[in-house]
Amino acid sequence: MDTSFFVSLDKKALYHNIEYLREYKQKELLPVLKANAYGHDILLIAKALYDYDIKVWAVARYSEAVSICEYFKTLSIDDFKILIFESLIDDYSLLEKYPQICPTLNSIKDLKNALANNISIDRLSLKIDFGFGRNGIKYEEVDELKNLIKYNSLKFLSIFSHLFSSSYTDGLEIIKKFTDLVNMLGRNNFEMVHLQNAAGIYNYDVDIVTHIRTGMLTYGLQEAGFYDLDMKPVFTGLIGYVDSVRYVNELDYVAYQELSSIDPGTKKIAKIKIGYGDGFSKANNKTTCLIKKKEYVISQVTMDNTFIEVDDRVNVGDEVHLYHRPNEIKTKTSFSMLELLIAISPLRVKRIFKGEEN
């Protein structure tokens, strides 16, 4: 029996979240697939979105966009677009090779270089920096930007900024600045306009935007302070099977620790084939997992294996659910479910939509 672990995903939940957010904000979605689709598998999610007729997505880095393009090439699919938010344009040959890739201009210099290299402006986005401290065209450079747009009759794929963690009134000020800026540059010069992060989607209505840019919310992951019961988690579990069971009285050690490290009443130690080498963090030591609807303590996480304090109910081949209480995990590990899910190795742990295991 294969006792390796996999991440179980719910495609119906993904589609539910899309429809719910569309209806809620009366806007189209721009799903963000960065960081392996927030740990859900960038290729799996991109194909699911494509099948749902959502064909424009965003990532952070060129490498992420290239991986999607190469995968979709094997499927003979080319009618999609991928916006890249973070990586700078430093290899124009990539844009020739992958016409679906749509970079972001983060400075006036980027825009001038694109014009000098005859890059189609209608595949590029402008990012505006309102003090987020990451990157983007500075607000003080807007007059120069306006002149370049007017002089060269430029039309872009999109313009965007970011509603970073700020007070409610600061957010309103950014929305006003962004709205005024887009109108000043010419609203018709941009096919797409987007601004909100997850908290911003709940806090504000922004008339000027055409799309809501959804990262965490696409996958039903929710931020501290915001919890919407109508959102559904796409992640449904980190699942595998018991690989071996040993009686404690047969052991001198549990992996690298002495027997004194486990609860004195423990009769058996079960081993599962997942560890921090797979991205299952040592922070999970002394948390619990679920076997046959009962919680058991995780005794020790090693590089390739994890050891669990169990009883006579547990046998080889039993199904094991890790992260079975995702909303409580931060209080037990100090890491959010988002951080833990992104850390799970895409090479060693497959992502699978429920019902599509084969």
From TrEMBL:
Coiled coil: none annotated. Keywords: Isomerase, Pyridoxal phosphate. Substrate binds at R134, M303. Gene3D superfamilies: Alanine racemase, Lyase, Ornithine Decarboxylase, Chain A, domain 1. Pfam families: Ala_racemase_C, Ala_racemase_N. Its cofactor is pyridoxal 5'-phosphate. The modification N6-(pyridoxal phosphate)lysine is found at K34. One of its GO terms (molecular function) is pyridoxal phosphate binding. One of its GO terms (cellular component) is cytosol. Residues 234-354 form the Alanine racemase C-terminal domain. This is Alanine racemase. It comes from Fusobacterium pseudoperiodonticum.
